[in-house]
Amino acid sequence: MDVHSQIIETPELGDAEHAAIGKIAQIQTGLRHRTAEPRRWVGQMRRQAQAAAIRGSNSIEGYVVTVEDAAAVVAGGATSEDTVAIEAVRSYQRAMTYVLQAARDPHFEYSTGLLKVIHFITTEFDLDAHPGLIRPGDIYIVNATTGQAEYAGPDAELATPLTDALCRHLNSATGEPMIDAAMAHLNLVKIHPFKDGNGRMSRILQTLVLARSGTLVPEFASIEEYLGAHTQSYYGILRTVGGPEWASNLDARDWIRYCLNAHHIQATVLTRRLAEAEELWGILESAASDATAHDRSVAVLHDALMGHRVRNSSYIESVKSATGNQIGKQTATNDLRVLVDAGLLYSRGANRGAHYVASDRLLGLRRVQPAKPLVDLFD
Question: Are residues 164 and 309 in the same domain?
Answer without folding.
Answer: no
